[in-house]
Amino acid sequence: MAATRVERRRLPEGRTVVMGILNVTPDSFADGGRYAAPEAALAHARRLIAEGADVIDVGGESTRPGALPIDATLERARVVPVIAALRAETTLPISVDTTKAEVAAAALAVGADMVNDVSAGCFDAGMLPLVAERGAAIVLMHMQGDPATMQDAPTYGDVVGEVAAFLAARAAAAREAGIAAERIWLDPGIGFGKRCEHNLALLAGLERLVDLGYPVVVGASRKGFLGALSGDPVDARLPASLAAAVLAAARGARVVRVHDVGATRSALAVADALARLGRVRG
Ligand code: HH2
Fold first, then answer.
1. What CATH number is associated with residue 178?
2. Number of structural domains the chain divides into
3. Span 193-213, pLDDT tens digits
4. Is 199's C-beta closer than 6 angstroms to any atom of ligand 1?
């Protein structure tokens, strides 16, 4: 597309940004196997765009609790053709959800604008320098442990304080590596090595993360703690997901990462209108 990476990165002001999830995987927790074929993935991306996504987040490796890592060649083969085809169709920012610099490099080469790294650059020492060198943006997410074992026994003294300290340190590392401050987003990592009460504490204390001075991303969509709270199975968690998105936005999240873009946009239209009047926060 003609638009440059810098132009694509200009996100809408005055409302919460919606990042639509495109899982090109056989085994993601909520939609595994539905969009694993490139044509199905593209059709779903078009739907996310039609429903009003501001960013499309393309992932080729599930990070659900218990998931084992896959190899970079397979992950690349899943995401690169989809990102290349999507780039030819849209000027929206595209992010690649990966912890591997090799996969990120291939995705950025075919037109991705940002990297969504659930390890905040901790799994691959090459990630931060790569993102800096390519002038891309990055989401730095907190996770305790790794996906294979993270839900076995998550433990914190002060979960909000620990997550805030980790994200501040990773943002400092990203800047040290040469990534400009305006290209860094932070994410508390809902469900990544956290019990229900930890996820709730992070949502309740989100303003402490917002105070770090970077846009905050919240990904609660269809996650297990919403099932624990509502009793709903994974494919019936839309109402609970909308509540989480609205409450996150009301506490200052700049971006929500969701499966159900159209419904989320409708819910956020109300939350954002109230936030603009200054009546929601506080
Ligand atoms: N959650 C998932 C994956 N990537 N990235 C960010 N920044 N924040 C999140 O909360 C987040 C994420 C897990 O959700 P999903 O992609 O739907 O599932 P899976 O990892 O099984 O593919």
1. 3.20.20.20
2. 1
3. 999 999 999 999 999 999 999
4. no
